[in-house]
Fold each of these.
Amino acid sequence: MTVTAPAPASVPAPARDRRASRRRGGGLARAFALIGAEVVASLGAALLLIVLCMRIRINPMTRIGQVSGLAGIQLRLVVLLTATLLLYWLVARVMPGAAARIGAAAVAGLATGVTASGNIVGLSGTPWPIYANWGDVGNLQQWAYDVIDGVPLPPEYPPGFPHLLAWAAETFFDGDVPKASKWVMIGFLALTGPAAYLAWRMLLPPLWALGIGVTATLPLVDPYKPYSPLVLMIVIPVFAKLVQVVQRSALLGRKRTIAIGAGLGLLLAVLFLLYAGWFVWSSIGVVVLFSVLLVGLARSGGVRGLLNGLVPLVSALAVFLVLAGAYLVDLLGASGSTKDTYFYYDTASDPGYFATWAASTPGPLRTLAYSPIGELGGVGLFTIVLVAGLGVALGLGLRQPLVLTLAACTGSAFLLRYWYASHMERDQVVQLYPRTSHQILYCLIALTGLAVYLAAGRIQAWIRAHDVEVPLAGRVRQSAANRPRSVVLGALCALGLLFGLAGSATADAFMPRDPKENSAGQLAWYAHNVRLPNGKCPKYAQWGKCEPYVPPFRGPTRPEKPKPAEN
């Protein structure tokens, strides 16, 4: 006789739906909590390092004082990095995934917290920002006063930063625009690492976002005008995320793609209003890339596939135009009449060379053979590695959103660079084409990192498919639980050290230097040697003497200001 067990009681459909909804809600809440933890860890690490370094007391106008200040920053960085590693090791025993995310985010914050701290040390004793109120930063201060006074801004320049500076001056600095400029620039410097990391986290796991996204930013960090490279570091991953959404539009559904597209459109509008240059250099590649994607969707999915792909694009474009359309119209209207005639070191170098630029080159080297001579047919080893990385990334990940976007933006920048450079002698204009070096270098470094990421994935897949046991170094075998912790710990330690060294080098390059040296440090020198609005010289002015103060003009026209040659 066969005895059958009673069938389990069926769960009513409404109850099942409620349970599934609770599970989804719990998963969504946990995801947002982890994202919030990454944001807090990254910003908190940068802020903590800055607060600790504000206690450093040195004379930044002497070389000994500068070295002592830089060493003080590194000492605090080592302490905070060690604390981050210990915290990761403890938390990873309970929550390994969350610990890796928080640890990577904290190291990203420390990365540019070093440079921001170096700026604070280099500007000790003066309320002026780098280059005081001269040059580009002087123009930004004048435009902030214009915003306060209700005077229209130049139509060709993005209005975001002048409005932000005016708001910060009135809200936190009692209308003192130069002092607000100093601290807003330092704030953007501190935000660079966290912003780059969080942008790349939209597409990559924590350690890879740290190792690729933040590493690619190292040559671009600019204490003089940090908001410009910050936009580049964010806008490329945002474009790539939009590419990913278009590719997966059929799977995500209309409502979700509309919401994501609108959010990305909002981000793009904010970035465009802050600095539009990178949109110009990327424009050809981005338009061609999305056109090709839509054609591919139409071929594979017909009209329905094309419509699915258009939904997030139209959503993003609609939000972008609502928020930034007015400035876009002004920019296009002024493009024909705006001419950049500033010829300088980079316009005299080989247009095929992009690995460094004048602002990152020590003064004495500018009088030598520039660009540097490379090892292989005039091409340097660093550039060869980048080109090889491009090839590997295209070979292994041609359909990957990040690879497609980075390749498209690289090609677009090269095309416009050569176009403007080839017409430079005929038209006697530069049109800022040397700035494409920043975009090309950033994209190629990121592509090289992605080549390693994709190759590692292929190797792991091959190992799993062939059930290969990989021997560990030495005779000591680690457990499966310990092995990931040691890998993450090693990566955080190595990247933290790299970022600290790079941040110190950048901060050192912008320490005050005599203008006769013709280096980036002369910009900080002027911050200590321009007379303050109250008639006094800054605390560490050389020999107690300083350059005359030219006040901003509060009205519809502007006075002529002394503008020493910029780098």
Amino acid sequence: MPVDEPPSVGGVRSRLELHAIQELLEAQRRRVTAYCELHRAGSPAPEPSAPSAAEPSLRPSGQEVLDALPVAALLLSPVFGADGELRDALYLTYNSTARAYADLRFPPGSVPPWAGPVSLFERFPALVRSAVPRMLAEAIRQGTPQGPETVEWLISTPSGPVRNNDEVRIAPCGDHYLLTWERGSRLRMAAAAQRLVRTCWAEWNLADHDVEPSRGFRQVLGLADDAPVPGLFDLATTATPDSLPALYQTLYDVILRKRTTECELRLRGRGGRVFRMVAEPVRIAPGGLVWAVRAVLIDVTADRRRREAAQRAAREARREHERAEAVAEVAGVLRDAVLPHFQDELDTHGIEAAAVYRPDAREAGVGGDWYKARKLPGGRLLIALGDARGHGLEAVTLMAKLRYALAGLAYTGQPVERLTQWLNEVACADGSESTATAIIARYHPERALLRWTCAGHPRPVLVRGGRATQLPTPEGGPGLSLGVLPATAYSATATPLEIGDIVLMYSDGLTERRPADPDKDTDRFLAETERCFRETAPGVGHAGLQEYAERLVARLDGPHRTDDATLLALRRISDQQGPARGRPRSPQVGRGCGAA
């Protein structure tokens, strides 16, 4: 095959590497040829032998020739019918190897004693359904040897059927036909082993380019059964360009350095197979020239693909981990900026506030839950808790939009039902996926009155004297979630608060179980609220309320949770009053974003 135009191999470098491989092989061929010429020229010609006085011995008999064969053999004489078609074959004789085979395979008494020529198919009926009749007919018709072919047949014995598995040949022998066989199981097992472990081997002679392949060589390499076995240079021309340097180095080490070595060989086409090639030198004599290259080729395509897939998965996992860390960092900053941390800023309005937030650890540590409690002009308080759809940055982005929009809208002084309607329009304008639930409330300190609306959210719970009850549904029922339908109207409910009353607002992530049952979830929340109160009533001050909220969340939280969870607790501590205990009046609640 010319180096100038190797099939589908492009690039100057590939051509140079192929040329180097060809030169390496040709140079060794010349060395081996010169070695043979030198030794042939240096050998003295044999002297003519003197004629023997004794007469040569008699020629061996046909039986002696049969017995000298290293394989089992039968001598057959075909029997034809009146129509000239082959009907049977006379079993004329056998050799000693055939006798040894029968003694090994057949229990005593299973085959009648030999008494001279007999019908082959009467003596061994199972052969009629094998390939033997066809092979014999073809040998007669063509006058050429047939086989080897695998012949499987059974013979009945007193101890049960015996399965015979042989490689059979039939060849003309004068007027007769010689049927020879050898145990085929070893050959088939070797071929099966090569197929199962995707391994083959060959020996490439460097002087005459002859190749001696293993039986499964073509199959393992993906070649047709009648395809020529590739020489070493042919193998190089089918390799991918990135395999050529390693192949050249391997051949160099084997041929010139006389070492056993290995390389990885990727073949173009045939599914992009990858082979591990382990090669060793075959020398003319110890310490002499390398006459041939013997190599084992192991198909490692599946292993390499698994390894490459694992490497890709590892790289993707690293990228995902880095992305998750980046998202978590951004989400953490957003969470700290958006979710306020209460101290005692609302005390001057007769209200204490505490909040507990538990992120969904599976989703970068942040979700769509949000809450807000801040002073408004006129001495009233804006209080809200919501849950934006989804997780991660998308959810926290929508949450921030709604939270800041509400903070601005609240300055209009409009009632909470109007604020909720406007907030719904903001969510609808953001897109079909921008939905959220929320409780929007305004506290009137002068009347100790909480007016609130519900937009598809769990209703608040009132704790009075240790008993927990869910606040009644607003007139007309709970409103739709935000972002579902534009121009939706919402109604408000007024809840008067007594000193010591605690109002709990929460997201469904705190109570929801799978399968979901909202009524059971609410009952569980009410029961745990009362149990926590009975065990230890909330202490005085912000710290006492915060401790109670933490205990309640700890009771409701667990590995079952699949969403972030938020609890906002409000407690009426007194009527509206001026700044308490010398603290300066603060215009906002929380840090940074808490004062929108």
Amino acid sequence: MRELVSMALATFGCAGHAAAQRADQNAARAAADAFGVSYANESVGLYDEEDVRGFSPIDAGNVRIEGLYIDQQADLSYRIVDSSIIRVGLTAIDYPFPAPTGIADFRMPDAPKALVLSPRLNAGTFGDASIEFDLRAPVVGEASSAAGGFGLYRDNERFGGTPKSFSAGVSFRWRPALGTEIIPFWSLDKIWSEEALPTYFTSGAFVPPRVRDRRRYTGQDWATNTSRGSNIGMIARTKLGDWSLAGGLFRSIYAVSRDRTTLWLDVDAAGTGTETVYAAPPSRYASTSGEVRVSRTFTEGPRLHRFHASVRARDQARLYGDAEAVELSRRNIATRLPVAEPSFAFVDRTPDDVRQMTAGIAYEGRWKGRGSLNIGLQKTDYSKHVRPPGRDGIVSRDRPWLFNLMASLDMASGLSAYAGVTRGLEESEVAPDIAVNRNAAPPALRTRQFDAGMRAALGKLQAAVGVFDVRKPYFNLDGANVYRRLGQVRHRGIEGSLSGDVTTFASLVAGAVLLDPRVTGALVDEGTIGKRPVGTSRSHIVLALDVHPQEWKGSSFDLQVTRHGGSFADQANAIRLPSRPTIALGGRYRFRLADRDVIARVQVTNLFNTYRWIADSSEGLTYSSGRYVGFSLATDLES
């Protein structure tokens, strides 16, 4: 690999500078708190785009790019985005129109002052390998710039799957006048030969026996998936005096041309189950969405005032079909028995359309040394039309008023308190693979959140602690495996964060969330289902430490300890999964190669090869990844 990198560096022919940009991205050192920050190749914190306080911002439809609303259907590629941050609690107090489940806010690369080429080679002990190449360059002086790249991956999975994928994207920044910026972008992600992660459903109140060889694929060669996701859009913003205007228009498409899912059903205590493959027809999920926001900002002595008026809209079209289930042999779940792929005769697919428009006004006020205020009021018009083949269409409408009220109080130098309440209209997860109505999406849900807390500056450390209460309708499988509303779910908890430089050569990110998830409703009162939601961990603890003495000249050592609390694996709350901590150790070594700075990165995840069962919300069980060692070589070539 050293020779390959050396040849690549010589080919690029750029002057050597200290590595920066992508090669030097370090989530632990960049994080302002423990609530979640992600880069292309690493992340740190309690939360991410898929999990905030036990819920998913992406499933809820709470995604922003450069602060503007996008109805994301395909993942936003890190070829066009630089990082993401979770806006929840303290991090949402100065953010217009927050959401109860939290917001995943993606940021695009800054305009470079010089040409920067960023090649990266990755490999791991699962046999995976990839190459990434990113470029950032000014185009015409400082008036315009471009960023983009590609990645080619052989992503060998923890269960033995061997998918391949390709990622590409490009974005431009054009500044035709002072204070004006236009950012068009495009990205594409393709995945093929992607084996389905085996999921296990037991026949009683127990978990399957441990799968000794976690890296052995036990499914069928033909049980693979092929998908394609793309995002295209444009962001424009300008500022004139106290006024600013920002807008974005986006098109997001996710298409699955081959859809196969492997489930092991009726698994007994000895580990014998029935391998079942669900095959579904091609599906497509597309949305055109965007936002226009007008803002005015002015100061009044020590007070800053900012007013917003916003209009957001989306036009979403989904097309999906019922899956055919094929029962194969009944055998031990650790064994493999290949068979020929049967033929499938898919029925007509179901169109599912959503149209929504939301208008809102908001006010943000900050009084230096006193506190801040964030108020928002929105009116949304939501309609959903599902047209099952051979049946009458189903129309859902909702036109609620939504609001948020958040305030903070500066109690002393470096010490503040905050509290807030938010009401929203959010999406829910779609019906799982095992559901009779697989892939069906419930109508948008009315949700609400209350949170409060304190934050303090402790020298170079930032500390925060808060409480929260999030409530929304609870959807899951009933006794007939129909995905529908079963009651109300409440996630109440305490979260804390401590981050910053503990010494001149060590950075710390420490966080914990203690969660009390609870389901209420008639089915709970009758004893049909338990009071705890399936698959929701009761706690999550993260400790990340990055040590980087000056004498190491850019090299560093890092440690991350993660502990997920226990959860229940079934609706009756009879199967309790224990908590298991995992430890990751890593290091970065900066060295010179071909007269250029290169960063070698090695990280061992799940150092002690911890094994645990993980339950999803539909009672499906998967096992955790085994010990993995990842390697990478990266550099930034700047001219």
Amino acid sequence: MTTYTRTSAALALSAVTAATALTVAFAPSADAAAGGRADAVPASAAAGTAGAPALAWRPCERPGGPAGQECAELPVPLDYGDPAGRQLSLAVSRIRSDRPAARRGTLMVLPGGPGGSGVQRLAQKGEALGKAMAGSYDLVGFDPRGVGASTTANCGLAPEDRMLVTLRSWPDADGGVAVNEARSRRVAEACQTNGGAVLRSFTTANEVRDMDRLRQALGERKLSAWGTSYGTYVGAVYGQKYPQHTDRWVLDSSGDPDPSRVARGWLANMSQGADDRFPDFAAWAADPARAAEGLRLAERPDEVRPLFLALAATLDHAPKPSTTQGTPLTGNLLRQAMQNALYGDAAFPGLARLVRQAQDPAATPVLPPELAQPLRDEDAAIAVAVICNDVKWPADVNAYARGSAADRAAHPLTAGMPATVTPCAFWKDAPVEKPTRITGDGPSNVLMIQNLRDPATPYFGALKMREAFGDRARLVTVDHGGHGVYLGNGNACGDRAVTEFLTTGHRPSRDTFCAAGQ
């Protein structure tokens, strides 16, 4: 792991090839210097605090999941302005420390999204995370309001409006936004008519309040957290609102926290994110090793991008029937499959196979499951509601058309999607509160970790989060592509930095760099 100063962070992209592995001096965080335990209460604490109810845990271990997983429900106010009023229910899950003497508190697992399930995230990562933490924490996750087994809402959307490729608002085949405008108006109207007060309560601010209510119910004075993707924003806002309740805070794959844009900025940044990441796929798809698998798309990496763009353009005007009746492979479906596949190297074979099937006149493309069927209405509702409820989006359709055309020309891989019109442009309810500005006010207890080539939360956006935190944070940059770093991409250097921080409190003294394969 190579150290570099904060002022040189922006140069990391050009410096990675010269980086070498060096030993890093770690500095203890405040709680480590004070003795290691962060105001933790005994693991056996049953009652909540500050009026939060106790949690009634029950076994919910599933085949293939982590051993000892437990589940409970937490009531939270629909409206925190009326805490005694209508209550919603949140699904909560935990894996208790198997070493009570080593336990120092609770580690909250914050999923991505909006719309990600903390309960599922814990089930997926619980075994690996528990091994890495070596009993230091009870591991806890929850489904935010609107997600999974928690209270949900729906917009009553037609199936065609719940396809991922339409929820992402890909422009028309000719680059126009007319179809998106009509769909966006339709979705916004349906959510206003059918969503009610529950849908209007789906905000980052309420998720943060719910998280603190869960802290109280757990009987903890402080929490540690591992947030990924959108979970980094939730974690950052919690750390801004409740700094006194934060212990060791890990933010994995962060976006730009600009409070004037929030999710609109995250979406816009995906254009450059795809451009940064696609060369990894191109190198993989041109590797001679792919030939034996029938997945080699070109002889040289620089031939893959034009091949992909030409194929998508052909499918724009001549969609190819797929094995999913009524859902042909279009140019936008291929682009969405590409965007999904860039999240992790393990998805590269599936994308290459889809490209091959699209090229072969005798083949019938098999669409990825997430693209072949519409989302559940509840899942579509939460995906739209949070980003529209959090901040006011511009409403000028002509401005979206101009922005989408410019983005399409500059970033053809994403074809203008990140800048086009969405239902948020026509959202009926104005935000009830302003987004939180992330600042350097608070304890210096944040460790950020970020891939250099992240298609969803690009590196330059993470640098904005790092800048906002100031001396509160340190950044570990990993020379890798994909979305999600810790316990996700196999970089031992990055994993080691996070594990050591969470288990010992020792954090890099400066922003640091992990080379590929380190």
